[in-house]
Amino acid sequence: MKKSAIQRKFEDKILQRLSGNALQITEYIFADEEIQILQDYANIISIKRLGFNDHGPVHMRKAALNALLMFELLQEANIELNLVKERVGNIEDSKIVVLIAGLLHDIGMTITRDNHEFMSVTLAIPIIDRILKKFYPKKMKKQIMMRSHIIECIFGHMATQTINSLEAGLVLIGDGCDMEQGRARITTLLSDKPQVGDIHKYSSSSIEKVTITKGERRPIKIIVEMRASVGFFQVEEVLFPKISSSPVKKYIELQAGVIGREMKKYL
Question: Can you give the pTM of this predicted structure?
């Protein structure tokens, strides 16, 4: 399978943070031809047909990496995620739920933009079953419970549906944090004619860097640095609503601002 250098870069960033079953499953996903085709085609539909920004393999890897970084910060703060708290699985199982969902959440873009989170669930279920049966043989109960968790993470990533687990909340925010300028680069190059949705393209183009790090008051701090104030659109219309509807909100600090000016504190 042909992969871009940036796609491989994010794969390496994810893999170097993993071990055990989580590492094996993620390597399996990265090598899977069906998943790669779905991710590539999601980008074709998003960019070439609809004129939206990146919803393909790079975006899904960045969203998964963002969720993984926040997962580690919650773990460092001794906060149990739902799969563990409910005695359904261990911390590695919870991490696997987040990774699988993060890497499949936008495959519904191969069909449509509207309600694509539900299209993603439809396409993902047989893939999820295939993965869980391979890596959790003879553990049907765990397969079923993990599948339900993964589905919640996928259908909840647009903040259109109520979600209740921290796992789903991480995928939701991880998706929202992918808004740096590179995500809008292709659509900016393809067309300079005004069209509906341009505010997303130009506001995303102004985002210089999104940093996920340990907070001072809470376990997670998200810092959004931008080159122009139009970037506040991305923060206030995309990221902040996702954080606000996420069960992870109480663990988040959020700051954003134009580089060289005082940061605005949202949380």
Answer: 0.90
